[in-house]
Specification:
The chain is mostly beta strands and 105 residues long. It has a domain of 71 residues: Multidrug-efflux Transporter 1 Regulator Bmrr, Chain A (Alpha-Beta Barrel). Helix content is 14%, strand content 45%. It is built from 2 helices and 8 strands; from the N terminus they run ββααββββββ. A hairpin with an 8-residue loop joins strand 4 and strand 5. It is globular, with a radius of gyration of 14 Å.
Amino acid sequence: MEIVQVESFIVQGLHIRTSNELEMNPDTAKIPQHVQFVDSNVGIDYKSGARAYSVYYNYESDVTGDFDILMGSNEVSSSKAALTSVEIVAGKYLKFESEGEFPEA
């Protein structure tokens, strides 16, 4: 984890609404299936330098409330579904990186 300065950019992708309560139970978790759906329906050209992002936003309240997750890219090359856009505003952010198979990574 590190703190990085980020310039403003747009992420386009597919979103879901979920909660920590749902995600803590493997039987109700939405994120694992959403990752597979995004991988199958949103084209990201990694060779051209595009990056994949997961944006957590629209928090209802605190840790117990619902929130949205948009998974996509700053450069979508194709999509089989209607995309949602989220603007990432310029500022300092915590950066987390991981490699490997989901969900272990």
